[in-house]
Amino acid sequence: MRKLGLDVGTKTIGIAMSDALGWTAQGIETYRRKGNIDEDLAYIQELVQLHDVDKIVVGFPKNMNGTIGPSGEMCQEFARQIEDTLNISTVLWDERLTTAAAEKMLIEADVSRKKRKGVIDKMAAVLILQGYLDSPAAN
């Protein structure tokens, strides 16, 4: 069974998928949200069914002091809607600094600013999912 990693934003969702053994995360795409939660969930449902996903790891943006702001609350609600609608378990995974780390990796790889904008969310999803896969929580 595979794990799906999501970096949920208001306009896009970065998507990553684990290999079948749950060892590595690969970036799939940056999905542009439709402005309708039902359409977004239907797309995620397609991925779940197509790739035999048994768990979804949702990035959980906390403030640096550990408090939860509006983005964190939005991600909590999104994870709850996934569980309620798709009947699949979710894990909220602390994603502090993942976007910054993804940006740094892309700069070091000499990816142009324009191209970075298109893949940053996908790379953040990879870091979120890989962090979970490498943790004791994944076992």
UniProtKB/TrEMBL annotation:
Keyword Cytoplasm: yes
InterPro entries listed in its UniProt record: RNaseH-like_sf (IPR012337), YqgF (IPR005227), YqgF/RNaseH-like_dom (IPR006641), YqgF/RNaseH-like_dom_sf (IPR037027)
Keywords: Cytoplasm, Hydrolase, Nuclease, Ribosome biogenesis
Predominant localisation class: cytoplasm
Family: Belongs to the YqgF HJR family.
Function per UniProt: Could be a nuclease involved in processing of the 5'-end of pre-16S rRNA.
Protein name: Putative pre-16S rRNA nuclease
Organism expressing this protein natively: Pseudalkalibacillus berkeleyi
